[in-house]
Design brief:
The chain folds into 2 domains: 57 residues; 107 residues, no CATH class. Helix content is 50%, strand content 20%. The chain contains 6 helices and 7 strands; from the N terminus they run ααααβββαβαβββ. A 7-stranded mixed sheet has the order 1-2-3-4-5-6-7. Helix 5 links the parallel strand 3 and strand 4. It is elongated. It starts with a helix and ends in an 8-residue tail after the last strand.
Length: 193
């Protein structure tokens, strides 16, 4: 530290006091300009983020309104109402996350390890452990423990109930296949959030 101060003093004496003060004032002016540009940059960045957030929100709202209008017209034609067909488990999970409330499911936890979801359904005050699969037969192929799960959520139910021994909710049709052999149709409703 002492060495740095000594260098400054030597420069001050060599160059003269006026030159030194002028250089310092130029450096301070440049620093102020840089700080101003930096503030403007961060303000612009916040504006861009706000605009992007509003755009994404409006996009989701438009998708929700489109889905709501379609199920109001024909609540039985769900494949058309969704507008998109999932091609992977990840796409199916995104679809289920978006529309779970319409079918009376409240997602309490969504994670990667088995089971994928902890849900509440309607007025039932019981946790439902659910595994998401694109096709219900994948539950058996993946070798999941059936005692660690209460329900399989799938896009297409293609597995005999005798093999699965779990409740199955098929999102594409809104059908709930129960282990006792009964089949329920869950028509989507407008969620009260």
């Amino acid at each position: 530290m002492y060495f740095e101060q000594a260098k400054v003093e030597v420069l001050r004496r060599m160059l003269g006091e006026e030159y030194y003060e002028r250089e310092i004032s130029l450096i301070m002016e440049r620093l102020k300009q840089f700080e101003k540009k930096e503030r403007l940059f961060y303000q612009n960045l916040e504006e861009i983020h706000d605009r992007r957030s509003r755009f994404m929100f409006n996009l989701l709202m438009a998708e929700e309104i489109r889905f709501t209008e379609k199920i109001k017209r024909d609540p039985t034609n769900l494949r058309e109402a969704f507008g998109t067909l999932p091609e992977s488990k990840l796409e199916f999970r995104k679809l289920f996350d978006m529309y779970a409330l319409y079918f009376g499911f409240r997602v309490l936890h969504s994670g990667v390890p088995h089971p994928d979801y902890i849900l509440l359904r309607g007025d039932i005050r019981r946790y439902i452990r659910a595994e998401a699969e694109l096709k219900s037969k994948n539950y058996i192929h993946h070798g999941h423990n059936p005692t660690a799960c209460d329900m399989v959520l799938c896009w297409e139910h293609n597995c005999p109930m005798c093999e699965l021994k779990l409740d199955v909710f098929e999102l594409s049709t809104g059908m709930m296949y129960l282990t006792d052999g009964t089949i329920e149709r869950i028509l989507p409703g407008i969620p009260n959030v």
